[in-house]
Amino acid sequence: MIALGLLAAGCGSQVSGHAPSPAGADASRADMCTILTEEELTGLGIEVNTRKQVNRLGLVGCGWQGKAITLDLERDKETLASYKARRRDPAFTSFADDTVNGRAGAHFSVDRDRTDCTQLVDGGPVSLWVAVAPAFSLNGPSVDSCAEALRIAQMIEPRLPKAGS
Questions:
Q1: Which helix (H) or strand (E) holds 107?
Q2: What 3-state class would DSSP assign to 43?
Q3: Choosing a second label site near 150 at 20 to 30 A (CA), which of 16, 70, 98, 110?
């Protein structure tokens, strides 16, 4: 969904020469489908039985539906540095650097209305995605997708490998 349009615009671009931050140890084995428990997913308003596996264009993980949001947790073969190098790509409707519990990150949107948000987390040779978009509901509450993506990324970050571990 969100990732498909973005990856088509920047597929294959890599930036070399940028070492990950000390906090960004190798998370290339992180299982984004199980990094949050069923109880945590339910607490986020996610319906755990809606889980769909993702394995396309370098992205591996899972997506779920909830009453207020859709959630995708994925591991991307592209690094955080490669995304930052493409920040002015027209596929992004917004792009900003940030941190997740002190670990380097960034967030972006690809929808014109900017209701979607993908929070990137440095995983060394990979980047980790927390993508949030509002569920399609006429009467549902308004969701700040970037705030929610950051909150979920902050839940996940302590479970990621640290440098030297």
A1: strand 103-109
A2: helix
A3: 16
Inter-residue contact 56 to 36 (CB < 8 Å) = no
Q: Map residue 151 onto helix, strand or coil.
A: helix
Write out the two tokens for 76.
């991307």
8 A C-beta contact, residue 100 and residue 150: yes
- Residue 91: exposed, middle, or buried by beta-carbon count in 10 A (0-12, 13-18, 19+)? middle
Residue with tokens 């960004």: 24
Cα gap 92→137, rounded to integer Å: 25
105 burial type by CB count under 10 A (0-12 exposed, 13-18 middle, 19+ buried): buried
Give 12's strand partners: none
DSSP 163: T
Which amino acid appears at position 87 of this protein? Answer: R
In this prediction the pTM is 0.83
Alpha-carbon distance of 29 to 15, in angstroms, equals 21
d(C-alpha 12, C-alpha 57), whole Å: 9
Residue range 76-97: mean pLDDT, rounded: 96
Please say whether the beta carbons of 73 and 120 come within 8 A: no
3-state secondary structure of 157: helix
pLDDT band (50, 70, 90) for residue 140: low
